[in-house]
Amino acid sequence: MLNSLLAALPFMSEARADLVMSAFWPMLKAGILVSVPLAVASFAIGMVIAVAVALLRISPARTRLHRFLLAVCKVYISIIRGTPMLVQICVVFYGLPAIGVYINPIPAAIIGFSLNVGAYGSETVRAAILSVPKGQWEAGYSIGMTHIQTFRRIIAPQAFRVAVPPLSNSFIALFKDTSLASFVTVTEMFRVAQQYANARYDFLPVYIQAGLMYWCFCWILFWIQARLEQRFSRHTVR
Fold this sequence. Notes:
Elements: H1 2-7, H2 14-58, H3 64-82, H4 85-95, H5 105-131, H6 134-142, H7 147-177, H8 189-200, H9 204-237
Membrane topology: Multi-pass membrane protein
Protein name: Amino acid ABC transporter permease
Organism: Conchiformibius kuhniae
């Protein structure tokens, strides 16, 4: 029944309908079991890097070590923001073996994605922290809190609410960018689509199907993002 409906589309045929149906479940499985975990793991590691870099950049540089680390962070952010993500992943997977460092495909993809998220996320986190009025710091100090306590109890919750929308958008973009992992042989959703398209030498229907499946996954993420923003907006109003 479904094959007949697909075959009725202008650019479809029975062979293409069979191809689309045969590719659907393997692509969905790869999306759930590989693409989503790849995005989640990369984003989690990337946010650890982002917070560390952001805190380092907003803290006064009083020592040589701090100034050195600050310079390293600026170079790191400049390199990541100035080069394509695909190049970064390929350097990790295909380039490092030239110096004797061999990394499996999935860890290589996670490293590449995490470094990218860390660089862009650090700017978002830094901007969110700086958006909190300085009076909030002074209020914390006035009641006897230390610098760390003030940040953890007063500044961080407010900064987190500001950072939720842009970081949510970053995660959605990262999920779509997991398709780049196919270039380092990770069998994620787009890699499966390539395999089925290459086997039949028919690319249009499978690639359109892949695009629609990414769109469906992203709609779920859009819904989660909207719920998060509504929740934090209610808390802000209160």
